[in-house]
Amino acid sequence: MYNNVHVLDHPLIQHKISLIRDENTGSKEFRELVEEIAMLMAYEVTRDLPLEEIEVKTPIAVAKTKVISGKKLGIVPILRAGLGMVDGMMRLIPAAKVGHIGLYRDPETLKPVEYYCKLPTDISERDLIVVDPMLATGGSACAAIHFLKERGAQSIKLVNLIAAPEGIEAVHKEYPDVPIFVACIDERLNEHGYIVPGLGDAGDRLFGTK
Ligand code: PRP
Ligand code: URA
Description:
- By secondary structure, the protein is α/β, with parallel strands linked by helices.
- Helices cover 31% and strands 31% of the residues.
- It contains 6 helices and 13 strands.
- It has helices spanning 11-21, 27-45, 86-92, 139-150, 165-174, 202-207; strands at 5-7, 51-57, 62-68, 73-79, 97-98, 100-105, 112-118, 127-131, 134-135, 155-163, 180-185, 188-189, 195-196.
- Strands 1, 4, 5, 6, 7, 8, 9, 10 and 11 form a 9-stranded mixed beta sheet that branches. A two-stranded antiparallel ribbon has the order 2-3.
- Helix 1 runs antiparallel to helix 2 (27-45) and helix 2 packs across helix 3.
- It is globular and about 65 Å long.
């Protein structure tokens, strides 16, 4: 449907997405589910990692077998809500370095405002995975990608749980080279910039604020 957009429709991911959409799901369960979904998504997002052949001596014989060929990865959560996806991703790629970009959406203008940025020094050598549960207008994701590219990033993937078509189009228009991995593409944004039906405010639901 969209070029360079991957909808991860694995039944376990879809089932857990239904649970986090439910307004009756409390913060503890919401956090656990977001972590689990992120872990499942990491499996698909890393599908193209290069392999190299090595030899391993089993108790029986020498096996020619494969390992990931020393690719450097980086996970970049967009604060706050992106933090909820980091541990799940790290369970599958524990050697990844983590960079943080702090952005919030101004509630009036819906434009992203940067308040924090701390990245690994060698981001130009890393495959970066930007994580944020929600892709709404796309303003935050575009700003994060802009900061990363400005600081030398060469390889970026974007991973969101739920995306609005408007957000996908915005990122795709500005950064057609950035593949987007999502669990669901919802209908639209409402007049406050919330995804419909979405799941509400991901940061507030993760951290029990509001
Ligand atoms: C949410 C969400 C994204 C952003 C998406 O963060 O986690 O970062 O909104 O909206 P956009 O695509 O229109 O930019 P928010 O600004 O609410 O901050 P928070 O994570 O601190 O709650
Ligand atoms: N941010 C959220 O947390 N939820 C939305 O629906 C849109 C932006």
